[in-house]
Amino acid sequence: MKREDLKMIDSSKAPLTIALTFRGDKLFGGAERRLLRAFNEVGFKHRVVFLARACSRAELEKCIEASSCDIDGIDEIICCSNKGKILGTVASLKLLAQIKPDVIATFDDGPFNRVMIQWARIAKKPVLLTIANDLYYSEALKGKKNRMLKKIVRDADHIDLLYPRQEEYYRTLIQGKTELTITPGTFTSLNIFQPATKKKQFVFIAARLEDYKNPKMVLEAAILCAPSLREHGYEVVICGRGWEEDSLKREIADKGVSDIVKMPGYVKPHEILPSAKVLCATNLINNYPSQTIAEAAACGCFLIATEVGETCLLLDPSYSVGIPPSAQALAAKMEWYMGLDPKTQNDYAVAARAYAQKHFSIERSKEYFLSICENLAEYHALP
To answer: Is residue 109 exposed (0-12), middle (13-18) or buried (19+ Cβ within 10 Å)?
Structure first.
């Protein structure tokens, strides 16, 4: 449905009620942090209710606290503790109905969203759906068809797409039945993420250690340049939890590098990035539009990132360097960085913070989401 002719809703009108919903029982990754931060800002103009699914209040509070996200703009937080696939969906839909939202915002095509979007169509509640999973596209390129994804993107009212290079694919998928816009880059909370006294650390950080995030490449690079790490007094810190954690720990022990490679488990981004010298972003598919990269730049970290997907949109020679996804390439850049004099390293840190202040402010994204939600609400209010 097209809304090109609609103007922004009159600011003198009553605030909208916007329901933001996703699971709250797992540590938040970039997709969750992005939406929570953006709609926290939207909440200073409209009423935003966060419906956290499949979690207790204690579980959600742990996730929010670990995410380094402000929630002072969120008007109300509701937890649906039922984790059942069917009963949990029913309970969450009942809570959504009680919220009486003008707009519903969520992301990706999980089982709940498949049902929720159908319910929303019947209830005449517009849905803003963010596509935050790059795996959908990579699987499609391999010839695998996701029929449910095709249906869900056609049934949503507006698609917020994170990946510019995938625009043509999704426009073909939706066949003009859904509005689609490209998100205006990444952002972070510049007041939370600020530089601190730097330690000699190369950091890899993820909420969940998964193969496509490629933590193994970081470990392999550390093994390759172990003598230099010891000589210069650096350590490599691999943060996160997940199914690769045990195998990485075994390899650290087997290779005898436990003195220079640390695995502290999940670490809150704002507790490690301010003091880290370098962030290693080694995703195999796409590092864009990474919340972690924005957080690291705001903290004055130098960035070494794999040049995959749209990662180039975040790279700037003033504070970063791109590499192919190989341990040898990463090890070479780690060696190069350790060989820099302190002044040059500090110049990169200052440039990273300056770049974040110029390019990673939340203002553009706040206005982007405000515009979408207000236009969706006005369109659905038309007779």
So the answer is: buried
